[in-house]
Amino acid sequence: MATTVSLSNPSILVDSVDFTDQCTQVTVTQTVEALESTAFGDTARKFTSGLGNHEVTATFMLAYDTSEVEEKLNSLVGTTFNVEIYAAASTSPGATNPEYTLTACYLETITPINGSVGDLPTVDCTFRGGALTRATS
C-alpha cells in the first residue's frame, strides 16, 4: 500500500479566529476513558467506553495588538468555545486534510506575559473537554 507523507503544516482556528500564522505547535489528543465491566466468572478483565476526555494543546507566538493572540485568548479564559484544526495549511477539509473540531472546549489558564532576553514570547494553551469530531468533507 502506497502512502504519502508531507511536512507538518496544520491550520488552527480558535473561536473562529485563524491563528495559523501565529502557532508553532499543535497536538490533538483523543481520549475515551475505559470503564471496567468485568463481572464475576470472567477470566479476564473487560472494558467498555466511558466519557470522552479530549484536548488540544498549542503554542502561540504572543502578539498584544487589538484582535491578536493575547487579547483573544485572554477573553476566552473560563469560557467554552470551538477549536478547529486541519492537518494541512488549507481550511477546507478533505481526504488528505482531515478537520478535527473540539466543540465546547474550555480554556482554564493562559500565561499572558512569558518572555526572556533574546526570546520570542510564546504562550502554551490547553483546550480541554468538549466533543471531538473528525470530518473529511
Protein architecture, described:
There is one protein chain. It contains 1 helix and 10 strands. The longest helix is centred in the middle third of the chain and has 8 residues, at 69-76. By secondary structure, the chain is mostly beta strands. The strands form 2 sheets. Strands 1, 2, 3, 6, 7, 8, 9 and 10 form an 8-stranded antiparallel sheet that branches. It is globular, with a radius of gyration of 18 Å. The model has no long low-confidence stretch (mean pLDDT 92). The two termini are 23 Å apart.
Key terms:
6% helix; mainly beta; 1 helix; Pnp Oxidase, Chain A; 137 residues
Question: How do you describe this structure in short?
Answer:
With 137 residues, this protein is mainly beta. The protein has one domain (11-37, 45-135): Roll (Pnp Oxidase, Chain A), CATH 2.30.110.20. The protein has one helix and ten strands, in the order ββββββαββββ.
For this structure, the CATH topology is: Pnp Oxidase, Chain A
Radius of gyration: 18 Å
Main beta-sheet strand count, sense and barrel state? 8 strands, antiparallel
Q: Helix/strand/pairing class, anyone?
A: mainly beta
When the domains are counted, the total is 1
Approximately what portion of the residues adopt beta-strand conformation? Answer: 35-45%
- Overall mean pLDDT: 92
Described by the principal axes of the CA atoms, the overall outline is globular
Helix content: under 10%
Element pattern in H and E: EEEEEEHEEEE
CATH homologous superfamily descriptor = Hcp1-like
CATH architecture: Roll
Question: Could you name the CATH class?
Answer: Mainly Beta
Uncertain residue ranges = none
